[in-house]
């Protein structure tokens, strides 16, 4: 597993340099087209400065931004001991030194993500919808997947890739917009000064690059994101030794129909399943941040013989039909076979949708500091934290209920 | 001329770095193995602490299960007294088997299952059982990594020179744990 982290770092470097090269080329081309010929270097420096600025921001406060943008609230152990226990078990299995912070997101759609630039400062966020719907083994599968993202340093990797993509897109947008709005005046005056032909060619090249670069960068970003998801699935199974847990969790997620309201296409790769439901889209290939859910489920279910990386790789080849190299060679060097363990929790009877929704609602209210009061008639009354009255009649029986000052 | 003199010095310096690097990684791995072992101990102790509370809560409801409770208490004291790795593995394995049997028996007592205290305790104990299993798993992973490094060339030379010993795997051998009971709620 530690070999994988090193391989991950090497690949991050290479990706970094590749996308960085395209950013630099784009910056030079734009600068050269705008103010030839020395403008190229200025453009290059401006592009680099932009990228460095965005990287610093995302490196130092990326996780805080993401957590608040997704509406996640930190919870304590007593609010949901099972989630904490599951996360702690994964922390032990992964050999992490510090327990990641746990957050709950106020949404009914089942999903989860992990964030944090170092394993020591990481966080896992889970939606209330996920908590209400999954049994212990499934929850463990999801948490294991997120813990694997932390362990494999995927978050750092995807953050830098995302910033690259953002910089390239931003640069192109600014350039193309200015092209249309500033129009002829500026360029005509330059052309008349001389070197008209060269300037036109450079301009055309810059425009072409400005259109193509973001598309290519986006495709690259999505392809890398998909690879990372497969790797996280494989690592998750290696941690839990129970592929069926993650498989049935993904199945439940695929059957849910809600959209995650606060996610967009840039933050999408960080979630366990694509939060933007593409209704009936078969275009799930090049333009998707996640591999198709049913492929992931089938691969996991084909792993009956073992839970190691080699077994995952074999299952991938069997299901998708081609020898994709998801796992870096260092992960395949393991020789010991890793057996699949038996189911943990006994198979619970599936709770009704109504009770699931009630559990989700209660959890969201707990996180938002609602008070839960019981009336003598047996009704549980959920009081919002900003209620100013000190007493009110019970909706069930009419008796007066007093709201304690602090709970 | 100077190069010919310098070359062996350069080679020796490089070799020294390589040797130091290998030695340090072996030491690091050995410490990781020790740390992983300590983690198992923490979880085992936690289980020892949780069990009496669980027995007390359940005793009131499960009046006819006296032998079950006696077995559990006896196994727990045996586990707390075990010393060597082998004895520990056996005693803790026995306790694990008894605890999973106990939770199966609990299914027959619906009022016990409705008791909130008991449910919280059950979750804690399930979690502790899982943590024992996972810390054992993490320990064995570390041992594998460490033993591989000791056995494989070229770090095997350094290991031999500085007397690094292989570690043993922690296998809980208990027949009860191997036979996973089939539970059906039809």
Largest beta-sheet details of chain B: none
Shape of chain B: rod-shaped
CA-atom Rg of chain A in angstroms: 26 Å
Class from secondary-structure proportions of chain A:
alpha+beta
Would you tell me the structural class of the helices and strands of chain B?
mainly alpha
Give the class-level CATH name of chain B. Answer: Mainly Alpha
Q: Over all CA atoms, what is the radius of gyration of chain B?
A: 24 Å
CATH architecture title of chain B: Up-down Bundle
Q: What's the average pLDDT of chain A?
A: 76
Largest interface: A-B, 24 and 24 residues
**Strand/helix succession of chain A:** HHEHEEEHHHHHHHHHEEEE
What's the CATH H-level homologous superfamily of chain B? LemA-like domain
Strand line-up in the sheet with most strands of chain A: 1-2-4-3
**Biggest β-sheet of chain A, characterized?**
4 strands, mixed
Write down how many β-strands of chain B occur, each being a DSSP E stretch of 2 or more residues.
0
Explain this structure:
The complex is a heterodimer of chains A (407) and B (186). With 407 residues, chain A is α+β, with helices and mostly antiparallel strands. Chain A has two domains: 1-350, no CATH class; 353-402, no CATH class. Chain A has twelve helices and eight strands. In chain A, 42% of the residues are buried. Chain B is mainly alpha-helical and 186 residues long. The longest helix of chain B is centred in the N-terminal third of the chain and has 58 residues, at 2-59. At the A-B interface, α3 of A face α1 and α5 of B.
Q: Which terms would index this structure?
A:
heterodimer; A: 407 residues; alpha+beta; 4-stranded mixed beta sheet; two-stranded antiparallel sheet; 12 helices; 8% strand; globular; B: 186 residues; mainly alpha; de novo design (two linked rop proteins); 7 helices; 0% strand
In short:
Chain A has helices at 2-34, 39-69, 81-94, 128-133, 136-151, 154-182, 184-193, 196-240, 243-255, 293-301, 309-320, 353-367, and strands at 72-74, 101-105, 112-115, 123-127, 371-374, 380-383, 391-393, 400-402.
């Amino acid at each position: 597993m530690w070999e994988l982290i090193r391989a991950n770092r090497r690949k991050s470097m290479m990706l970094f340099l590749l996308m960085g090269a395209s950013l630099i080329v784009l910056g030079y081309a734009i600068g050269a087209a705008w103010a030839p010929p020395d403008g190229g270097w200025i453009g290059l420096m401006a592009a680099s400065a932009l990228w460095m600025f965005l990287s610093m921001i995302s490196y130092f406060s990326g996780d805080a931004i993401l957590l608040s943008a997704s509406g996640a609230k930190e919870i304590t152990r007593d609010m949901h001991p099972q989630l904490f226990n599951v996360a702690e078990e994964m922390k032990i299995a992964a050999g992490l030194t510090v327990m990641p912070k746990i957050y709950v997101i106020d949404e009914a759609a089942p999903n989860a993500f992990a964030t944090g630039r170092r394993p020591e400062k990481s966080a896992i966020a889970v939606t209330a919808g996920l908590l209400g719907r999954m049994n212990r083994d499934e929850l463990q599968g999801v948490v294991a997947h997120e813990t694997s993202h932390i362990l494999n340093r995927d978050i750092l990797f995807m953050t830098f890739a995302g910033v690259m993509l953002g910089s390239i897109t931003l640069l192109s947008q600014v350039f193309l917009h200015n092209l249309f709005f500033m129009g002829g005046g500026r360029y005509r005056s330059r052309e008349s000064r001389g070197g008209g032909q060269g300037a036109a060619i450079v301009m055309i090249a810059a425009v072409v690059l400005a259109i193509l670069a973001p598309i290519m960068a986006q495709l690259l970003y999505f392809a890398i994101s998909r690879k990372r998801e497969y790797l996280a699935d494989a690592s998750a199974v290696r941690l839990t030794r129970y592929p069926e847990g993650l498989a049935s969790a993904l199945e439940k997620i695929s059957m849910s129909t809600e959209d995650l309201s606060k996610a967009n296409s840039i933050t999408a790769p960080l979630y366990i399943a694509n939060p933007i439901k593409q209704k009936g889209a078969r275009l799930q290939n090049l333009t998707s941040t996640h591999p198709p859910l049913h492929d992931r489920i089938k691969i996991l279910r084909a792993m009956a013989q073992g839970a190691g990386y080699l077994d995952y790789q074999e299952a991938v080849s069997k299901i998708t039909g081609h020898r994709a190299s998801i796992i870096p060679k260092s992960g395949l060097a393991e020789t010991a076979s890793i057996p699949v363990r038996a189911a943990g929790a006994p198979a619970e009877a599936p709770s009704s949708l109504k009770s699931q929704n009630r559990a989700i609602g209660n959890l969201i209210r707990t996180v938002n500091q609602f008070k839960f009061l019981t009336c003598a008639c047996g009704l549980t009354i959920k009081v919002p934290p900003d209620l100013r009255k000190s007493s009110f009649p019970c909706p069930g029986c009419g008796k007066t209920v007093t709201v304690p000052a602090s709970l | 001329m100077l190069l010919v003199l310098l070359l062996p010095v350069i080679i020796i310096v490089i070799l020294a770095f390589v040797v130091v690097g290998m030695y340090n990684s072996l030491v690091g791995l050995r410490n990781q193995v020790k740390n992983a072992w300590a983690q198992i101990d923490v979880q085992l102790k936690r289980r020892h602490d949780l069990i009496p509370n669980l027995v007390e809560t359940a005793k009131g409801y499960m009046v006819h299960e006296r032998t079950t409770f006696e077995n559990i208490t006896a196994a727990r004291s045996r586990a707390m007294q075990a010393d060597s790795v082998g004895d520990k593995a056996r005693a803790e394995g026995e306790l694990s088997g008894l605890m999973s049997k106990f939770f199966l028996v609990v299914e027959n007592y619906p009022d016990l299952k409705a008791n909130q205290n008991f449910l919280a305790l059950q979750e804690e104990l399930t979690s502790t059982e899982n943590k024992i299993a996972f810390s054992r798993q993490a320990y064995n992973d570390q041992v594998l990594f460490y033993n591989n490094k000791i056995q494989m060339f070229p770090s095997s030379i350094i290991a031999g020179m500085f007397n690094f010993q292989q570690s043993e795997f922690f296998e809980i051998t208990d027949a009860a744990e191997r036979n996973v009971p089939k539970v059906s709620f039809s």
